[in-house]
Each structure stands twice: as structure tokens, then as C-alpha cells.
From TrEMBL:
Domain named Lantibiotic biosynthesis protein dehydration: residues: 100-475
Protein name (record): Type 2 lantipeptide synthetase LanM
GO BP annotations listed: carbohydrate metabolic process; peptide modification
Gene for this chain: lanM
Originating species: Microbispora triticiradicis
Annotated Zn(2+) binding sites: C829, C874, H875
UniProt keyword terms in alphabetical order: Metal-binding, Zinc
GO MF entry, a single one: metal ion binding
The keyword Cytoplasm belongs to this UniProt entry's keyword annotation: no
Species classification: Bacteria, Bacillati, Actinomycetota, Actinomycetes, Streptosporangiales
């Protein structure tokens, strides 16, 4: 983070480095050049470590010197040089002790520990260098490079180091590698049963007492399709094996693609104890779902999944995920105006760099995900066969006394606390900062199963963080009780091998397979990603028995939703599924929203129960009870959240969006009222309570769009105002409109709304100009005081959308595809279907011919390009059906296409292929927009007499 901010640290590091140099020079077996190299590499790593710790203090001191007038140079650059000279003196550093009493002593500990670790490395290298040649590609000849910091620092400044020889490389690990050896042996014993070409492995190791040397694995892309298929089948094998032996924390840096071989290079976290989920307050069903998923193959860390911690929110750190172009930009601290006396800390938006876990430059996971699943299944079945023969337990006994690590808290959580402990305010008052850190860890333990709550252990964790180390917990599978930082112990004695074997035998194999299918979705950032598979075809469009077939398919979907529900003893219910949140896709219990969450499912079930009562759908026994339980679960969650806001610590506000967020919850209650599922009094009371949270949510919003942003709350607020007669909600909608006025970027192309994720702005309904413009146009329709301004801005945004239309491609460009501005989308979320639906809405309200033209082009694009991929509302046939039907009804539909043919096509496709979800075709999702819930809802709307409103705009009266 320093940039040109480089005041001298010699006062801190020079004495220790001088001692290190002398010690290294005296080690037998090291050449003079090697000793210098190790010393220089240590100095460089130490400089970076110390600078990251003290930069904020130094910036504060520089600022104090500037504003107090102590700097007399004529320019900012000269004043910087003046201060820099002062900061290089012992007097400067000693003067800091009064304000930061423990800073120098803590820095001294870090420096001494890192130097001692370097000496230990050097001695071990000198003693073992002859043996290192026995490792594949092992180090030979003179030592020519030393890379410190290949991993986190633990237990007194020790970390993984990569050593380069004049020939070859080797990896030094300051821990026992006995577990690596045991895993290699287990793979060797299983290898004859794996398909030809499967090459899962771990690096060869050289074991020493308390440390070891590992083969350096060179990242290599696969040479051809055969190797790619072998790689992904191997990933499936790793999933099965790690599921058996309790592997966890297998993130992207722990797996390297070596051609067709996925190599796990850090396998210390095996036989991880499983701790049941703690009661969440959201009901037994939610807790059951959480426990099921946390005990499934998902916990290995291999499968795609998004982070939730502050610094890594939305980042996919998994071994198989982390795809290029599918990571959010992150904010990192930088020094702004370095080299001047105005230097200060700022944040810079950066893209995460590539790592070595992928077998090709641009992985297309969807092409190979069936191989991941089949690889998992074939090895799991083989392991089950070994267990039936009584051989499986014997294969695991070799692990019993081999040291393993247990990760009780995410490294990112520790890193955030460490950063806090090195803040100038914390350095000024260390006891208070330590108490705050301990309190946060204790609070963390209340929410995270297995995290230490023992005050003695927590104090030891904080002590480690004070001196730059990540706390480390270790045990052996036979013992189970953990050795923690500072000589502490934690947990019970237990046989972790027996526990892993029991969990393997008791596992829900179908759930594991479903989790693998579903997790593919988490590798992708956006809801509109579409797999590059072949389209579904309907060989023969049959018009006979359409009503009977419609009812049969709808009832089948309803039964599947009933059968897949997770039911709690307390009357709560949920589902496990891929769920879209503001941070990305997660495999979890349903979230509280319309898009793929509980509210959307409630709307679907309510619609089915209502249509059944009208004789337009076949009765599905138990569905009304399922709806009642889901409403109970939703009410419980809202009560729990309200109580937490009243009495708990301040939370990050929910998003305000119309499909993911508070806006979606508001219009859900209003629509459930319209469907007769809840009474008017409850609906408006619940919606009003939710609307009260919007000001804080809008203030925190940084995306502004219809899906998750503030624009999505405008129409729900207007409808709430209409139904209650309470003008405070329309006033709140006006304020959102005014904020959108201030945030718009307007030029000769029109208006758009840049965001952190998409600084160029986007088109389309869900995240782009059309969705925001629709909300502003509806706000203008409501005759508010700012109507003229809102309408003018809406028109400018519609103009911008029109600038994205590509006549040659006959569609609207999808600006998410930064590498190819010719890419167009026909889906609801980012393309023609959504644009057309807004056009249909505006045509009905304004009657202007321009909207008929937009609707015509949108329907044509949707029908030609958006059909046949899947059946979802968001980016599939049932979303396309609605836009094309609108176009047909007003005479601008695709040529010779009739409502009857359109219905026959949709029903025929579902007859032929079954209900197909979008992002991972075989994964089950009950959700409204990405799953079978929306398919069911639209099938109900296919009946000519239904009054069910559209859900493709966030308006319960649409």
C-alpha cells in the first residue's frame, strides 16, 4: 500500500538485520552468497510487513507536522523530503512512545520473530540440502532465490517459503508434513480403482521433525480437451475423498492445476470436526438446512462460493471457482499523494489477480460440471463398496497420530481484527483495543459453531494478532482436543477418524450431489449468466390437450416444491438452493426476497392455492399447509430481524431493491393481500414496518438499480401509499427519485447510473438504465411535485438504452461483456425481454408509438435468441413467453406467431425436457425468478381466465 510513501525503517530493522547477517554467515553448509541472499530476502519481506503495520501512524504524524507548521519547505514535495529526513532519526521513533506506548516493543517482537524464523530456515536448508535433490524438480546447486510470505505467518513468525536453486525449486513448510504423506499413500491405494487418466495427487514430501520440504508444483494449462476432462473428473474425485476425510479450507491457493492433474498443495486441514449449527432464531427448518449444508461436500471449500466478510464480500476464493471476469472488484488501501506532505490513506478499486487453480486461461465450468459430478459419484460409490467389505476404516488408520490443523475462524476475520489492532487509536490505547478485539471474538463465537468462546483462548488469539501472527490450532485425528495459541487447549478429546467415518456413512448422498450441481451457480457474479450449452428443441409442437398438459406440469412442479422442502418441528419451512444475494450466489436456505427467496416462493404457492380454489389448477394435497408454514417462517424472520435491530449491535442495512431487498418484501405483502392469502390489515402493517427501514437502506445503497437498489423500492412505496392513504410513503418515493436525479451521469447518449461494480453503467431492466427509468417514469405518473424532472430523466435513460441497440445484431448490447461490446442479450434481466416488458408497460400508460416499436424489436429478439435455453422467468422461456405475448396482443409480435402456438411451444418444451432451471440446469431451485417457482406461476397465468398479475416488474397491481 505504500507506493512512494517510503520513510526509512532502518531504526527499527537495522540492528536485527545486522545480527541476522552475522548469524547466517556462521551457518555451516551455506555459502557466503546464500547467506547474503537469505538476509536480503528477509529484509525485503520484513520491510513490507513492518511498513504495513506502521503506515497509518506515519501518515498521521506527517499530517500533524504539516498542519502544525513544523514543515518549512516551499512545496509539498520539499516538505515531504524534510519530514522524511526527520522520520529517519532515532529521536523521531522514540518520540512516538509517549503516544503509542507498546508500538516499538510489538514491532521488535515481529522483527525478532521473523529473523529467528529465517535463521531456522537457513539451518534446516543447510542440513537438508543434499536430500532436497530427491524431490521431483528438487533444488540443486546454489540457492539463487528465496520467496518469503507464501502463506500466513503463524507461531512466532513462521511461514511457508519457496526456495529457488540454480536448478529446481522446493517449498519449505514450518509444520509436520506427515499428514501429506498419509494422504499420498491413501491416494496410491485408491488409484488402481480410478478411471484411466485420473491423476489426483499431492506433492511429494521430505519429512523432518516439526517441519518438512515439499515438491514445488508448477502451474500448467491442459494441452487439449482430453486433459481438461481428466482435470475436472479429478476435481470430482477430490470432492469425494475430502468428503470422506473431513477436508476443509481448500481455497484457490491450495489447489494447483498441473496439466490434467488437480494437485492439492496444502492438505493440513483434514478430519475437521463438525459442530452442529447454533439456533439462529429463524426457525428449526433454517437451522436444519444450515446444518445439512455445513456438513455436506460444500464445507470442503473446493466448490464455488462467495465470501461474506468485510474485505472479501462477494469474492469467490474456492479451489474450483474464482473465475477470470467473475470476481467483484475489491477496495484496497493505498497512499494518495505519496511523495508530498499531503499524503493520506485512500482506497483503490482493484481486480483480483489470477492464481494457479485453473487448467485453462478462460475456464468454462458448465462444459465440464457433469464430469465433476460423475467423478464425485464414481469415487464415492467405490468408497462405499470398500466400506461394505470392511476395508474403508483400515485405510484411514494411518492418519491417527499425524498432526493436522483445524481452522476455527476464517483467516479474513483474523486479518480484519489484526488491522484494527494496528490502527493508531488502538496503538494509543492498547488495553481498550484488546478488550474490543476479545469482545468481537466472543461475539463471533456466539454466531459461528466451533469458534472458541473460552476467554483464555480468546486472549491468546488476541496476543498472537498483536505481534502479526494468525492464531493456529492443531491436534491429531486420534486426540481431537486442540492445542491453541499461547499454550492453550480447546475442545474435547475425540476420535476424529471415527467421527469422519460416521459422517460419511450417515451422509445424504443425494444432497451432496444436489449441492455440487447447485454450486456451479456461485462461480458467476450475475443472475443473467447463461450456460453455453445447446438449446432445447421441441421436435413437434402439439396443440392438443394443452389445458390437461398445463395442469399436469403445474401440479408436478407444485409437488416437487412440497417434496423438497426442509420442514422444522416448530412449523417452519425452507429449501436449500442456489440463492442470489447482494454479494452474489450462495447455496443456502432461502433468503428473504422475491427473486429466488422465500417471498417469491410464497407468492407462487399463494397463486397456486388461489387458482386451485377457482378450479384452474389441480389440487395438490398439503400445498395449503406448506404455504401456511412458509408464511409463519417469513413472519418469524421479520420479527427476529426487528428485535435484532431494536436490541442488537448495528447491522449493515438490507438492500432496498425490488427483487432482492426491502422493496421486494413490501410488494410481496401487498400481492399476498391481493391473492387473498393474508388480510389487508396485516399486509399493510408488515409492508409499512419494512418501508420504515428504507431510508437507511437507501443511504447505504451503491448500485441504485431495480433488482437490489433504491429504484426497486419506488413503485412498492407508491402502491403502499395508495393502499393506506398515507402520503409519507409517496414522499419517501420522491426522495429516492431526487437521489437518482443527483446520481445520474448524463451526456449526449442519455442518462445512466455508474456503480462500483459497473463504472460504465449498464442497460437493461435488472441492473441498468431501463429498470431505473421505468421506476422514475412511474414516479412521474403519480403526479408528484418533481414529476417533470423525473420524466425528463427517465426519457434520457430510455434514450441511453436505445443507444445500446445494435441493428446488425438486432438486440441490445450487454455491457457486462467488457471484452466484446457486440454481445447482446435477450433475457429479462439484462436484455430484450426486460426492455420489452417496460415498453409494454409504457405503451399501455402512454400509447406513444415509440413504445410499440421498442416492443416489436424486443419481442423479435427474445423469440429468436432468448428461447430454448431454459424455462425460467429471469433468462428463459417463461420470461420470453410474457414479452412475446404482450407483443402479439398489440399486433407487433413476431410474424405469424399466435398465442396458441406460443402456449403450445412452452408446454411442449416442458413436456419434452421437464422443468429446466437456468444457471445449472439439473439443480433444483424453488425460486420465482431463477427456478421452478416462476415456471409454475407462469403456467398458472397461461389460463385465459386468470387474473394473476405479472411479477416481471415490481408492482403488485401490474
Amino acid at each position: 500500500m505504500a507506493g512512494d510513501f517510503d520513510p526509512s525503517l532502518d531504526f527499527l530493522t537495522a540492528p536485527a538485520l545486522a545480527g541476522l547477517s552475522a548469524t547466517l554467515g556462521s551457518i555451516p553448509g551455506l555459502t557466503e552468497a546464500e547467506a547474503r541472499l537469505i538476509c536480503q530476502s528477509t529484509a525485503e519481506a520484513l520491510e513490507e510487513t513492518v511498513r504495513l503495520k506502521v503506515n497509518r501512524v506515519l501518515l498521521l504524524e506527517l499530517n500533524a507536522a504539516r498542519i502544525s507548521g513544523r514543515l518549512t519547505g516551499e512545496t509539498p514535495q520539499l516538505r515531504w523530503q524534510e519530514w522524511k529526513a526527520t522520520a529517519a532519526t532515532p529521536e523521531f521513533w522514540l518520540s512516538l512512545t509517549g503516544h503509542y506506548p507498546t508500538m516499538l516493543s510489538r514491532l521488535g517482537t515481529i522483527i525478532d520473530n521473523r529473523c529467528a524464523a529465517a535463521v531456522e530456515l537457513a539451518r534446516r536448508f543447510a542440513a537438508d540440502r543434499a536430500a532436497l535433490t530427491t524431490l521431483p524438480g528438487g533444488l540443486r546447486g546454489e540457492l539463487v532465490g528465496v520467496d518469503f510470505g507464501a502463506g500466513d505467518s503463524h507461531r512466532g513468525g513462521h511461514s511457508v517459503v519457496v526456495l529457488h536453486g540454480s536448478q529446481g525449486k522446493v517449498v519449505y513448510k514450518p509444520r509436520s508434513l506427515a499428514v501429506d504423506e498419509a494422504l499420498a499413500r491413501l491416494i496410491d491405494r485408491l488409484a488402481p480403482q480410478l478411471p484411466a487418466g485420473s491423476r489426483i495427487r499431492v506433492p511429494d514430501v521430505l519429512i523432518r521433525q516439526g517441519y518438512g520440504w515439499a515438491e514445488h508444483i508448477q502451474h500448467t494449462y491442459c494441452a487439449d480437451e482430453t486433459e481438461l476432462r481428466s482435470f475436472y473428473r479429478g476435481v470430482g474425485h477430490w470432492l469425494a475423498l475430502m468428503r470422506l476425510i473431513g477436508g476443509s479450507d481448500l481455497h484457490m491457493e491450495n489447489l494447483i492445476a498441473a496439466g490434467p492433474a488437480p494437485v492439492v498443495v496444502d492438505c493440513e486441514t483434514l478430519f475437521t470436526p463438525h459442530v452442529p449449527a447454533k439456533p439462529s432464531g429463524y426457525g428449526d427448518a433454517v437451522d436444519q438446512a444450515t446444518d445439512l449444508l455445513s456438513g455436506s461436500v460444500l464445507r470442503t471449500g473446493l466448490l464455488p462460493g462467495r465470501g461474506v466478510s468485510l474485505a472479501w464480500r462477494g469474492v469467490d476464493m474456492s479451489a474450483v471457482g474464482g473465475l477470470p471476469g467473475q470476481q467483484p472488484y475489491t477496495q484496497v488501501p493505498v497512499v494518495v499523494d505519496a511523495g508530498t506532505d499531503m499524503a493520506r490513506l485512500g482506497m483503490e478499486r482493484v481486480e483480483l489477480g489470477a492464481v494457479s487453480n485453473h487448467p485453462s486461461p478462460d475456464p468454462i465450468l458448465v462444459h465440464y460440471w457433469d464430469l465433476v459430478l460423475s467423478g464425485f459419484t464414481e469415487l464415492a460409490e467405490h468408497l462405499d463398496m470398500l466400506d461394505r467389505r470392511g476395508e474403508l476404516a483400515g485405510l484411514l488408520t494411518d492418519f491417527a497420530d499425524r498432526p493436522i490443523r483445524v481452522v476455527l475462524r476464517a483467516t479474513e476475520a483474523y486479518a480484519e481484527l489484526a488491522r484494527m489492532l494496528w490502527h493508531p487509536a488502538s496503538l494509543h490505547d492498547e488495553p481498550t483495543a484488546m478488550g474490543k478485539a476479545a469482545g468481537l471474538l466472543a461475539q463471533h463465537a456466539e454466531n459461528l459453531p466451533g469458534a472458541p468462546s473460552d476467554p483464555e483462548v480468546i486472549d491468546a488469539e488476541v496476543a498472537e494478532l498483536l505481534v502479526g501472527d494468525i492464531p493456529f490450532f492443531a491436534t491429531t485425528p486420534a486426540r481431537g482436543r486442540l492445542d491453541g495459541p499461547g499454550g492453550t487447549s480447546y475442545g474435547d478429546e475425540q476420535d476424529l477418524i471415527a467421527d469422519a467415518l460416521r459422517r460419511w456413512r450417515d451422509r445424504d448422498a443425494a444432497l451432496d450431489r444436489e449441492v455440487i450441481r447447485s454450486a456451479l451457480v456461485s462461480a458467476y457474479l450475475n443472475e443473467g449468466w447463461m450456460p453455453a450449452n445447446k438449446r432445447m428443441t421441441v421436435p413437434l409442437i402439439q396443440h392438443q390437450d394443452l389445458e390437461r398438459r398445463r395442469r399436469r406440469i403445474a401440479a408436478g412442479i407444485a409437488r416437487s416444491m412440497l417434496d423438497t422442502a426442509v420442514r422444522g418441528d416448530d412449523g417452519t419451512v425452507t429449501w436449500t438452493a442456489p440463492v442470489l444475494t447482494s454479494d452474489g450466489w450462495f447455496v443456502q436456505s432461502l433468503s428473504p426476497d422475491v427473486y429466488g427467496g422465500a417471498y417469491g416462493v410464497a407468492i407462487t404457492l399463494a397463486a397456486y392455492v388461489s387458482e386451485t380454489g377457482q378450479g384452474r389448477a389441480d389440487e395438490v394435497p398439503g400445498l395449503d399447509g406448506l404455504l401456511a408454514d412458509l408464511l409463519h417462517t417469513i413472519r418469524l424472520a421479520e420479527e427476529r430481524d426487528a428485535e435484532a435491530r431494536r436490541t442488537g449491535p448495528r447491522r449493515r442495512p438490507a438492500t432496498p431493491g425490488g427483487y432482492v431487498g426491502i422493496g421486494s418484501q413490501i410488494w410481496s405483502w401487498l400481492l399476498l393481500r391481493r391473492l387473498g392469502t393474508v388480510g389487508s390489515e396485516e399486509a399493510v402493517a408488515q409492508a409499512g414496518a419494512l418501508a420504515g427501514q428504507l431510508p437507511e437502506a437507501v443511504a447505504a445503497d451503491g448500485v441504485y438499480d431495480l433488482l437490489t437498489g433504491m429504484a426497486g423500492a419506488i413503485v412498492p412505496l407508491l402502491r403502499l401509499s395508495e393502499q393506506t392513504g398515507d402520503q409519507q410513503w409517496s414522499v419517501q418515493a420522491d426522495r429516492i427519485g431526487e437521489r437518482l436525479l443527483s446520481l445520474a451521469h448524463i451526456d449526449d447518449r442519455g442518462a445512466r447510473w455508474p456503480s462500483t461494480a459497473f463504472p460504465q453503467g449498464l442497460g437493461g431492466v435488472s441492473h441498468g438504465a431501463t429498470g431505473i427509468a421505468w421506476a422514475l417514469a412511474r414516479l412521474a405518473d403519480s403526479a408528484t411535485a418533481g414529476a417533470a424532472d423525473f420524466r425528463a430523466l427517465a426519457d434520457r435513460a430510455f434514450l441511453y438504452e436505445e443507444s445500446l441497440y445494435d441493428p446488425a445484431e438486432k438486440g441490445w448490447r450487454d455491457l457486462r461483456e467488457m471484452d466484446d461490446h457486440r454481445v447482446t442479450s435477450s433475457a429479462w434481466c439484462h436484455g430484450a425481454a426486460g426492455i420489452g416488458l417496460v415498453a409494454a408497460d409504457r405503451l399501455a400508460r402512454e400509447g406513444a408509438p415509440r413504445w410499440a416499436d421498442v416492443l416489436r424489436r424486443a419481442a423479435a429478439s427474445s423469440w429468436s435468441r432468448g428461447i430454448g435455453w431454459n424455462h425460467t422467468l429471469c433468462h428463459g422461456d417463461l420470461g420470453t413467453w410474457e414479452i412475446v405475448r404482450h407483443a402479439i396482443d398489440v399486433g407487433v409480435g413476431p410474424e405469424e406467431l399466435t398465442p396458441e402456438y406460443l402456449a403450445a411451444y412452452v408446454i411442449g418444451s416442458m413436456d419434452e425436457h421437464g422443468p429446466v432451471s437456468g444457471l445449472s440446469r439439473d439443480a433444483f431451485s424453488p425460486g420465482l425468478m431463477p427456478g421452478v417457482g416462476g415456471m409454475l406461476y407462469q403456467l398458472l397465468r397461461l389460463h385465459p381466465d386468470t387474473s394473476l398479475p405479472s411479477v416481471l416488474l415490481p408492482d403488485p397491481e401490474n
